[in-house]
Amino acid sequence: MSCGNRLAALGIPKISGMVNSWRTIWQTPMAWIWGCVNARGCSIFWVSVFESLVLLLPRRTRWLKRYIKKLYRYARDENVDLWSLDECHFQQHGTRCVMWVPPEETDPILLHAPTRKSVALFGAVNLHFGQLVAQFHSAFDGITFQVFLQTLLRHRRRGRRLIVALDNAPYHHARSLAPFLEKHRKVLKLLFLPPYSPDLNPIERVWKLTRRLCTHNQYFPQLQDLVTAVSNQMKLWQRPNNILVKLCGII
């Protein structure tokens, strides 16, 4: 039975999309279901209930619940330093959003840098204290990722094990990392997110807030201006702070 027929059998109406389309949407009384349908059958379905994402298929649901329980267990463990890690690009042309302007400005102008240059950085936030560790790199690969992990290990508290929640980017699984991870296996563990679940990574909220504070409706004539703006914001969060604790807290 195809995915569409399965949902139809449950009395869930389809409100947009075609049978053979890439994106199809159904509506339930409590949620929106987003899925992929093709001629060969079904792919992954997601149920979005308010701000939570839950996988619809039973096996995927169990996988997600196991991960969340494991994350809560580490968060409550006094012998663990729990960090959330991710990478991010910030574009020189900035980001655009709706904003208030003085009523006397009838034709407001916002300059836009005509370039696609960007800066890239690794970042990790301590979910207990809100401390942020960030490091700029020209590229993301196994080598730069190992360099950042070495930096992160310097922030490990004495007697604590470092647990790092991160996504499944290819360079996070690089073979070149195996000797390093084996050497530090007693003090460092990588906790990989379930596939296609970036919303479970708390540091994504930090990137969103950083863009709002640093790049929304901002003009950067030079790339260094963008680097300076982002660096200054990162420095404010280098020490434990309540802003990121409230933003990224999971317990």
Molecular structure report:
31% of the residues lie in helices and 26% in strands. The protein is built from seven helices and ten strands. The radius of gyration is 21 Å and the shape is globular. The protein folds into two domains: 3-58, no CATH class; 65-98 and 109-248, Ribonuclease H-like superfamily/Ribonuclease H (Nucleotidyltransferase, domain 5), CATH 3.30.420.10. The chain is α+β, with helices and mostly antiparallel strands.
Task: Tell me the layout of helices and strands.
Elements: H1 3-9, E1 14-16, E2 24-27, E3 32-38, E4 41-49, E5 52-55, H2 58-76, E6 80-91, E7 118-126, E8 132-137, H3 142-153, E9 161-166, H4 178-183, E10 188-192, H5 203-214, H6 223-236, H7 242-248
Parallel strand pairs: 6-9, 9-10
Antiparallel strand pairs: 1-2, 2-3, 3-4, 4-5, 6-7, 7-8
Task: Give the integer mean of the pLDDT values.
Answer: 80
Total helical segments? 7
| Oligomeric nature of the chains | single chain
What's the gyration radius in Å?
A: 21 Å
Structural class: alpha+beta
Counting structural domains, the number is: 2
Report the helical percentage: 25-40%
The number of E-state strands comes to: 10
Low-confidence region ranges: 14-56
Q: How would a textbook summarize the main sheet?
A: 5 strands, antiparallel
CATH topology of the largest domain: Nucleotidyltransferase, domain 5
Using the 3D structure, state the CATH architecture of the largest domain.
Answer: 2-Layer Sandwich
Please report the first level of CATH classification, the CATH class of the largest domain. Alpha Beta
* Proportion of strand residues: 25-35%
Helices and strands, in order, run as HEEEEEHEEEHEHEHHH
Sheet with most strands: strand arrangement = 1-2-3-4-5
Name the CATH homologous superfamily of the largest domain: Ribonuclease H-like superfamily/Ribonuclease H
